[in-house]
Each structure stands twice: as C-alpha cells, then as structure tokens.
Amino acid sequence: MQLFYEPNFDSSATSISINAMESRHISKVLRKAIGEEIYVTNGLGICAEGILISNHPKECKVEVKTIIEEKKPNFRLHIAIAPTKANDRFEWFLEKATEIGIDEITPLLCDHSERRRIKAERYEKVLQAAMKQSLKYTLPILNPMVSFSDFMEMDVKSKKMIAHCEDEKKEKLFEAANRDNLILIGPEGDFSIDEIKKALKYQFIPISLSEARLRTETAGIVACHTVNLIRSI
Amino acid sequence: MQLFYEPNFDSSATSISINAMESRHISKVLRKAIGEEIYVTNGLGICAEGILISNHPKECKVEVKTIIEEKKPNFRLHIAIAPTKANDRFEWFLEKATEIGIDEITPLLCDHSERRRIKAERYEKVLQAAMKQSLKYTLPILNPMVSFSDFMEMDVKSKKMIAHCEDEKKEKLFEAANRDNLILIGPEGDFSIDEIKKALKYQFIPISLSEARLRTETAGIVACHTVNLIRSI
C-alpha cells in the first residue's frame, strides 16, 4: 500500500483534488491508471481509500470509497529541540521521530545552539515523506524556530520536562512520562546554566534519558521512543 | 574530555604506543604538547588516563597514570540485521546503536536483502568514532556478513528472537528481553516465509518491536533502545 498526502479534504469528502506535486508523481512516475485503487491522507488523522478518476499530471482526482480514521494514541508528545549544525542529523531525528510517533516539534534557539536558522520547507518534506512511508495519517506539527526565552513564556498544558547534562537530581523519563508530554532537548554543548535555571523557574522538571552520553539527535529519538514505549505498556 | 582509540594495550600497561592514524590526529590536528593529559581506550573495556610523553606524528607515546575499568552492564545485546541499500542509513544505525549500547552486530544476508556486500572497514570506523564520541571503552564487535541459513547454524547461548512483519502471535520485546539477547532484524522487504519458518525451527521467538511500521535501521535502534531501557528499570 502506497500512501499519498493531500491536506485539503476532510471526512465528508466524496472526491479529492490532488496537489500538483503528488499528481505529477502519481501520473508521470508511477503511471497510475484510471480505475486504480489509491490511498490519500490529509495528515490530520484520516485516510481516504478511493479510485483514481483522473490521472492528469497537474491535478489527479480521486473518488472516495471509504474514510479510515486513525486510532488516536493514549498520549501526546511535543519535543522542543535545538537543531544540530549538520542538517542530515536533524533530518534523521525528524524522520525517525515520525516513524516511532510524535505530535509536535519545536526547533529551539539556545545559548549554545550551533544552528541559528532552519530550513523549514525542507524539514516539512522530511516529515511528510516519513509519515507516508510509515503509513501514518497524522503529520507532526513543525513549529517555527523560537528562542529559549520566548518558548518559556508559552502557555502549555503538557507536563514540562528538560533533559540537561548538569549534575543534579533528575527523574528518569520512563518514570516521569505522562499523558501529555513536553520535553526539551538541548544543543551539543547542552543548555546554559541560565537556561536551566529559567526552565526550573517555569516548572520544567529535570529528567535523565539514559546513563549514556547521547548526541542531540539521538537524545531526541531516545526521548521519543521512551515515551512511546512506556505509554504502550 | 576527548578519547583516543588504541587497541594494543591492557590493564598492565605502563606506557602505550599510539597507532599512526590517532598519532597524526593528536600531533598534527590537535597539536597536543608533551606533558598534556590524554585518555586512551583499548575498546575492550578499559581507559588509560595518561600523560603525552612523545607527540611524534607517526607514533605518539603515552605514560599511563591510571587505568579506569568500564562498569559492565547487566545484559548483553547482539543484533543481526540486514544492511540497508543506502549505506548512510546503516551507518546511522551503527552509530546510534553504539551510543545507546550494543555488544555485537552481525550483518545478515537475507532472501530479500537489498545489500549483498558490505564495507566492513568503513563500518568499523563508524563504530570506533561513535565509541570515542560517547566516551565508551568497549567497541561493539562487528562480525563478517553471513547468510541467514549459515547464521541459523551458529551455536549461541543468547535468548534468540526474530522481529518479522508477518501476522502471527508475537511477544513484545520489552517483555521478552533477557540478560543475554540476540535479535534478528530483517531487510525492508521483511524476512521471507522460508526464513521465518527456519528461525522458528531453530527456536527463535517471534517478537514485536512497535505498533508502528519501522524502517530496518529504525527497527534496529528501537530494538537496541528497548533492551537498554528495560534492563535499566
């Protein structure tokens, strides 16, 4: 089963007009014929099972047969993480986090950040590709990059946790993980002392992910998998 | 703290001769001076804390002050995994598995394998770099590539598990994980029916890693992290 992504439809749709990029792929690359079965997700939790009624390379059309709703997990996970200097490492994180399960990602600009600007469009494509490849129907939300201080001010309902490397009493993530989780992952040089103090002031709980010393993108995946695993037990 | 790798010494060493590659790095790139503190691991569980007594670019010498022994984990993990077609994906697995914790890796040649030859020397370099970067003193063992059938014949003491995608009763890895684990991870097209039958005949227990559909290298990391996490609780 191959999955396509078209955000502009909902569960009441009887037909779907596919965006130009996916249409070109369906028509010119895969050369799908009229009458063929096709699956399209809107990235918002549903998948339309349908029949291709037009294979025009600029706008394919699908007649909807069934709407499948994705089962909602029993938890929510938002990771705010400092993008790595090397783009491929951060893109690995985006891809793997989507495969394993994540709701929201916020790129953080921290004191020790090695990357101060992000390629949002590129990251979006990585998330879309990973969603389709894993046959998931929900696209993780990718927020704009935000500074650590600005992020502290944001009002969130989630249980707030910060994974830092300083020597202090920390709760293990697998014990702290909740139904609604927000986890901060710092840059390669860790969060600054100021940032840690600020996070504690804003009621972030210090957590530890592992005994091992992990790279930023590995810490992101370990945090993501820990929450998914613990919530599935 | 920066860690260097030189396999040819043991805990009785009073001085260490560093191999050419690391010597060049120490002498020409980092320009370490005589008298500087230096840490060297033999990749077999120990780290020598010492003083640089010669910074010759072809053979640095270290006078050993202290030998530090790595604490042994309470479990063992061997993953036999079909290398992915794209080398960077497999190298990503090698790096992340080393950061998180793994003892042994066997590249498997399966019926549906997309990669039938491996770049062993390149993979060794990835493992060494990951070990040093994570400040670990034990280099994961990388075995030569072996066919699935030949691997079945090998005598192992570990609890034998196979993660396949066919629809059958499977135990969850986090429940099955043991003190001594061998986990088989198949190629993108999964193990063949023949291979699964053979594994069952050789007492491999079918396990599931996740509800989600994971790429080969992601499955490898999920298996690796699951064992590490469960054995740490």
UniProtKB/TrEMBL annotation, chains A, B:
Q: Which Gene3D superfamilies match?
A: 3.40.1280.10, Hypothetical PUA domain-like, domain 1
Q: Which family does it belong to?
A: Belongs to the RNA methyltransferase RsmE family.
Q: Tell me where it resides.
A: Cytoplasm
The reply on keyword Nucleotidyltransferase is no
Q: What is its main location?
A: cytoplasm
Q: Which InterPro entries match?
A: Alpha/beta_knot_MTases, PUA-like_sf, RsmE, RsmE_MTase_dom, tRNA_m1G_MTases_N
Record EC number: 2.1.1.193
Ribosomal RNA small subunit methyltransferase E methyltransferase domain residues are: 73-227
Protein role = Specifically methylates the N3 position of the uracil ring of uridine 1498 (m3U1498) in 16S rRNA. Acts on the fully assembled 30S ribosomal subunit.
Question: A Gene Ontology CC term for this entry?
Answer: cytoplasm
What name appears for this protein in its UniProt entry? Ribosomal RNA small subunit methyltransferase E
Q: Which NCBIfam families match?
A: PRK11713.6-1, RsmE family RNA methyltransferase
Q: Which organism is it from?
A: Psychroflexus gondwanensis ACAM 44
- The residues that cross the membrane are none
Q: Quote one Gene Ontology molecular function term.
A: rRNA (uridine-N3-)-methyltransferase activity
What GO biological process terms are annotated to this protein in UniProt? rRNA base methylation
**Catalysed transformations (reactions):** uridine(1498) in 16S rRNA + S-adenosyl-L-methionine = N(3)-methyluridine(1498) in 16S rRNA + S-adenosyl-L-homocysteine + H(+)
What are the alphabetically sorted keywords of the record? Cytoplasm, Methyltransferase, rRNA processing, S-adenosyl-L-methionine, Transferase
Q: Which lineage?
A: Bacteria, Pseudomonadati, Bacteroidota, Flavobacteriia, Flavobacteriales
Pfam families linked to this entry: Methyltrans_RNA
